[in-house]
DNA sequence: CTACATGTGGCACTCAGTGTCACTTCAAGG
DNA sequence: CCTTGAAGTGACACTGAGTGCCACATGTAG
């Protein structure tokens, strides 16, 4: 069967749909691209698009939740000998270490997420699970409750450092993202008095 | 002229419209209230509503920008003898010190802003100017650039402490918000090694 | 009384997001 | 080979936010 009755160009995965959307956003801007446009380009209907994404805002995020799960696993697997700060440092750098082949796409994605107001706002909701993973780890390591003030404030600070790093990286594409992150995290660690 | 031709009940200020909206949100929930509902309750048209607010999401914020301006002024007026940390501490507590008569409304407003997902997301954009004011002050005091990493990370941490305080306060209405904030800020200050 | 600036309402339009239902695809089991 | 059921898809209609445009009212300065 050389030709399926279904259009073989039909895109039916979150990852691929995200790529198609990203391409259109690059061409026409985020606001300038309608869900209809993405659906058409992917060979599916508008209705079907919303079965893959809860909202247009989620397109640039792709499979983010999977990555957060990986971060959580990474942290849990840290040997007890490694300090909390060192563990977070390594896990966060690793979290943002994308293969060369994907770096362009990743930059483009982050450029949108950090500069389009609607997406900046929406990011808060997506980042919440990331911060939660960090906060849980800090709480577990320090033996305090996750509901305590400190884990959350610190996880916010880590998010801030990450975002600040991305902003530097987007302005200076030459430097390695992981290098910037490494520096930012080091700066952050020097801000904390007690060993976390 | 006992009766103006214009409906005297017509509401024509951001502050009052915000109050009308808040009341409806309390009754029917944020999602359960349409802009049309608010406009009707305020005696104006839907079109006019959008001349007061850029979006429905801005209703709970009311005149926030004015408050941020006041924060900025407060910080600038700080005598040079007061440390950066102490100045921020005082200014932030003051920023959140509402008169008794408005406390109920303020609690209701914050309850929405911290619990309705769309509003949580949108808050990021509104808080940005607050953080900017903090970051500018820190940068000025430490003689570094506002573009530097540290002012931003620290301002994020202050925001996190504020939000965490509000969450505590919303769960335990008995305690004073300013007291919770005071405690949270003290905790935060102990996290910083160098004098900011 | 006129002229001009500002505020308002009505209307039509775009687009995101949702509920419903009919249709297709495909795999499992007779 | 046929049936049955589950899962994915598309068409359609609808709600609601937000915008552009234009006509009308109000208020103020000359």
Describe the protein.
The structure is a homodimer. With about 200 residues, chain A is mostly helical. Chain A has two domains: about 15-60, Arc Repressor Mutant, subunit A (Orthogonal Bundle), CATH 1.10.10; about 65-195, Tetracycline Repressor, domain 2 (Orthogonal Bundle). The first copy, chain A, is built from nine helices and no strands. The first copy, chain A, has helices at about 15-30, 35-40, 45-50, 65-75, 85-95, 100-115, 115-140, 150-170, 175-190. In chain A, helix 1 crosses helix 6. The model of chain A is unreliable at about 1-5 (pLDDT under 50). Chains A and B meet through helix 7, helix 8 and helix 9 of A and helix 7, helix 8 and helix 9 of B. The first copy, chain A, binds a DNA duplex (30 and 30 nucleotides) through helix 3.
CATH class of the largest domain in chain A: Mainly Alpha
List low-confidence stretches of chain A: 1-6
Q: What radius of gyration of chain A results from the CA coordinates?
A: 19 Å
Strand coverage percent of chain A: under 5%
- Residue share in helices of chain A? 55-70%
Query: How many helices of chain A does DSSP assign?
Result: 9
Largest sheet of chain A: none
CATH superfamily of the largest domain in chain A: Tetracycline Repressor, domain 2
- Overall shape of chain A: globular
Oligomer: homodimer
- Indicate the CATH architecture of the largest domain in chain A: Orthogonal Bundle
Average pLDDT confidence of chain A is: 90
CATH topology of the largest domain in chain A: Tetracycline Repressor, domain 2
CA-CA gap between termini of chain A: 61 Å
Task: Please count the beta strands of chain A (DSSP E, at least 2 residues each).
Answer: 0
- Secondary-structure content class of chain A: mainly alpha
